[in-house]
Amino acid sequence: MNTYPSILLSDAVDQFASLPGVGRKTALRLVLHLLRQPDKDVEAFAGALTRLKQEVKYCRVCHTISDQEVCPICQSHSRDKHTICVVENVQDVMSIENTGQYNGLYHVLGGIISPMDGVGPSDIEIDSLVNRIEKDDIREVILALPTTMEGDTTNFYIYRRLQNLTKDDIASSPDRLIASLPHPLKISQIARGVAIGNELEYTDEITLGRSIVNRIEFKL
Q1: How confident is the model at residue 198 (pLDDT cuts 50, 70, 90)?
Q2: Which of 5, 26, 64, 102 has the smallest set of CB atoms within 10 Å of its CB?
């Protein structure tokens, strides 16, 4: 039964309650707060959301959110162009940037392999990652995916794809460097200072920063 005195109020609450982590009580508080604000502030709020949806882009290189075709990180001349940090989503880019411990490039997969959820390798940006490594002067790939079963599955799949870039069996190389590329490629992963089962965006900046600095060689 609808207990709201207004259909418009109820509709607005429904929209806010559809957001992740927002219950109906919180949604009601947010809607009532907006009703008390000046018209210009509410219009600015709605306009920002509309512009975000209509105008935001995804970097054609790394796939993070950007106002331009190529994001500022990919354009920056001060970043380490030889290192790519592979992450699940845009939030992870923001979390790692907040640590101040990483100065390379990123590659946002847009998800991780999860057969239970119907997400396969072709549903995320793995092919474009391999293409970047083949054509750019990449020396190291850091796998910074969630420390979950799905994250480990995605790590393994990416590792096997990169293994296919070599002419020889990578297992014969003790330092696991891919020799067929213009320069050897090191594959590493964030240290397990991040607790098993944790998402990067919920990890404190000190722990996450140390896990990047103290990254280790990726091993099967």
Answers
A1: low
A2: 5
CATH number of 7-55: 1.10.8.420
CATH number for 78-217 (one of 3.30.390.30, 3.40.1360.10, 3.90.1210.10, 3.40.50.300): it is 3.40.1360.10
Distance separating alpha carbons of residues 189 and 95, to the nearest angstrom: 16
- Edge-to-edge strands of the sheet including 140-143? 104-108, 80-87, 140-143, 186-189, 216-217
Q: Give dist(CA 194, CA 103) in Å, integer.
A: 20
Kindly state the average pLDDT of the residues 71-87.
Answer: 96
Note the pLDDT of residue 208. 66
Average pLDDT value for residue range 34-62: 95
103-130 average pLDDT score: 95
Predicted confidence at residue 9, as pLDDT, reads 93
Place of tokens 């992870």: 92
All CATH 1.10.8.420 domain ranges in the chain, comma separated: 7-55
Are 176 and 140 within 8 A, CB to CB? no
State the alpha helices, DSSP H only, in the chain.
7-17, 24-36, 39-55, 72-75, 90-99, 126-135, 149-163, 205-213
3-state helix, strand, coil in the chain (%, to 5): 45, 15, 40
Backbone angles phi, psi at 215, to 5 degrees: -60, 155
